[in-house]
Amino acid sequence: MPTRRSARAATFTVLAALVVAAVGCGAEPPDLFAVDRSGSIAGAKLRLEVNDGGTVRCNGGEPKRMPSKLLLDARELQRQLDEPGVAGRSLPPGPTSVLRYDVRTEHTRVRFADDSRNRPKTLDELAFLVRQVAQEACGLAR
C-alpha cells in the first residue's frame, strides 16, 4: 500500500510532466512574412522575418521584440498580401527605382520596387512598415 509521501511524489511527478509537456509541445508562432530589401543606397540591404509572436529577426540575427502597434500593422498587412490583386504579383521596377522588395508569406510571394507602376496601396504600406521595423525594432538607420 502506497504511503502518503509516495502518493504525493507520484502526483508531483505527474503534474511536473504535464507542465513540461504543455510548455514543450507549444508550437512556435508562425512567421507572418519575410522581406528581402535591396537597393542602390547605403543601408538598403535588409532581411526581416516578422513573427506572429511579436518578434522580428533582422539580417539573420537573434529575435527582437517589436512594438505592439507594428505587430498589429504587420498582421493586417499579412492578410492583405494574401488577397487577390496583391498575392503573387511581380511588378517590375521603374527607371528611378531606389529600393526593391521581395516579400514571402506562407501562401504567396510579391516582388516590387518603390517606383513600380500600378502597385497596390498595400505595398506602399508594407515598405513603410519595413522601414519602421528596421528603425524601431532592429535599431538600423534605414
Automatic annotation (TrEMBL):
Keyword Signal (UniProt): yes
Record-given protein name: Lipoprotein
Organism: Capillimicrobium parvum
Keywords: Signal
Domain of life: Bacteria
Signal peptide: 1-21
